[in-house]
Amino acid sequence: MQVEQIYTGCLAQGAYYIESEGEAVIIDPLRETQPYLDKLAEAGVKLKYIFETHFHADFVSGHLDLAKKTGAKIVYGPQATTAYDIYSAQDGEELKVGALTFKVLHTPGHTLESTTYLLRNEAGEDYAIFSGDTLFLGDVGRPDLAIKQGAITKEDLAEMLFESLRTKIMPLDDKVIVYPGHGAGSACGKNLSTDTWGYLGDQKATNYALRADMTKEEFVQEVTSGLLPPPQYFAKNAMMNKAGYESFDEVLKKGAVALTPEAFEALAESEEALMLDTRHQDDFAKAHVPNSIFIGIDGSFAPWVGALITDIKQPIILITPEGREEEVVTRLARVGYDNTLGYLAGGMEAWIKAGKEVDAIESITADELANQLTNDLQGEILDVRKPTEYLAQHVEGATNFPLDYLNKNMDRLSRQKTYYLHCLGGYRSMIFASILQARGFRNLVDIQKGWRAIEASTVPVTNYACPSTLTQETIDQAVAAVL
After folding, report:
1. What is the DSSP letter of 277?
2. Cα angle value 56/148/476 (rounded, 5°)
3. If you ran DSSP here, which 8-state letter would residue 413 be given?
4. What's the CA gap between 46 and 71, in Å, rounded?
5. Contact, 475 vs 227, CB < 8 A?
6. Cα(164)–Cα(325) distance, rounded to whole angstroms?
7. Mean pLDDT of the chain
8. 347 SS3 class
9. Which tens digit of pLDDT belongs to each residue from 272-308?
10. pLDDT reported for residue 347
11. How far apart are CA 144 and CA 156, in angstroms?
12. How far apart are CA 367 and CA 375, in angstroms?
């Protein structure tokens, strides 16, 4: 038996490859299939099943392309309705892969079709669960993504999740390994651990949602409180996973096209293509194509694309670090942005050599900010971190304006005012600045290295409050203020 977790940090997502006696199963695969095909070919095994734990909202699964290329069956649990052929497994059904057995455990709550797959080893012993977004390490899946107006509420789903955990998962032995769908950084839960796998016994002892004496009412209150609105792309990705999508091979072929500066400029005008710059934030600050948007490939790229580019069919053209063009197209496709039309060949160097116009973002150090504050700063400091980060500690007098809700709250800002922007390390604030600049805001100053530099400077800050001591009421009030 071979069990391999294939973890993708950008999405905080775990896919799984399990092999036994010449057969394999892949659970919750990513969009690009070639790495899985290479693994199967190297091992000389046949892919029998592709297990899906649920309709993913935070990424587009590779199940359709993988099934077409291998002949494997796509398996969902009960209540999954799709526009393509699947094997709809029943609760309690057992599926064989080599000498292994997978038992299907229908565990609704995160979504109605959510399913956990229990792996039994060659000796028939319970070995591991692949819990998708039903059970994480330290948390459980949020119950607000599959609500239906007038039909089902997040409280209804939370009650289902309570029953699923206590009737299907908690009765399992403590030594069973938990392989979740996500780790820390995912928006599919509130308080996920940085660990990517663990033992069920540890979760029973430490996970707040598995407390033995917890009532259903307490559980519902705990898992539904403090939920931030899901990113806007979640519903769109879930629909693509249900209805189908264009082949990734075609998406890559269309997107990895080299464009001259003239062709790049023409596409931006004729197709109204969004110019997406994925270089490092410092490079973007120094020189970029006017009206381009920065979302760096080396940060939380895909989630920020999904949160901020509201039209999933938006034509996109790219400015990328040299040699990483296909990587960027791939990572866009992972969250359903399939309409990439090419990239600027030669990058900013080629753009500048062609004599094209260049823009920049003013940037100062934290020490320079401290000096300006001493001399009566002319402008407003915007802290673009999340409300909980802001509540823990912030610059005195700064306003919390989370990047997550910039599109929604744009009308609260004035083009006549100067804004000093910072996040934790400089990545989010540069995204924020680029979007504002593209929409006509010119009086923008980015604080280099963000909060990390500010707290090491003489900039006056509030007293530190440990996030674990913040009351839910305080957090809810802070969230309400920015929504």
Report:
1. E
2. 80
3. S
4. 9
5. no
6. 43
7. 95
8. helix
9. 999 999 999 999 999 999 999 999 999 999 999 999 9
10. 97
11. 9
12. 13
- Over residues 404-419, the pLDDT tens digits come to 999 999 999 999 999 9
Least confident of 20-34, 139-153, 432-446: 139-153
Query: Is 61:26 a contact under the CB 8 Å cutoff?
Result: no
Under the banding of pLDDT at 50, 70 and 90, the label for residue 384 is very high
Through-space distance between the first and last CA atoms of the chain, rounded to whole angstroms: 49
3-state DSSP assignment of residue 19: strand
Q: Pick from 136, 289, 291: which is nearest to 223 by CA?
A: 136
Average pLDDT of span 55-59: 95
Amino acid residing at 467: P
**Over the stretch 456-479, which tens digit does the pLDDT of each residue have?**
999 999 999 987 777 777 877 887
Q: Report whether 18 contacts 25 (CB < 8 A).
A: yes
Whats the size of the chain, residue-wise?
483
Rounded to 5 degrees, φ, ψ at 104 are -85, 120
State how beta strands 115-120 and 100-106 pair.
antiparallel
Which residue has tokens 């934790």? 424
More confident residue, 378 or 175: 175
Tell me if 116 sits within 8 A of 132, measured CB to CB: yes
Please, which contacts does 246-253 make with residues 24 or more away whose CB atoms are closer than 8 Å?
246/338, 247/65, 248/31, 248/32, 248/33, 248/62, 248/65, 248/330, 248/333, 249/65, 251/329, 251/333, 251/338, 251/340, 252/326, 252/329, 252/330, 252/333
Q: State the residue for tokens 């934290």.
A: 366
CA nearest to 248, candidates 142, 168, 358, 326: 326
Q: At what angle do helices 154-164 and 216-224 cross, to 10 degrees?
A: 120
Query: Is there a contact between 252 and 317 (Cβ–Cβ < 8 Å)?
Result: no
Other CB atoms within a 10 A radius of the CB of residue 376 amount to 6
Q: Structure tokens of 464?
A: 């530190």
CB atoms within 10 A of CB 113: 22
DSSP 348-380: HHHHHHTT---B--EEE-HHHHHHHHHT--SSE
Return the pLDDT at 310.
94
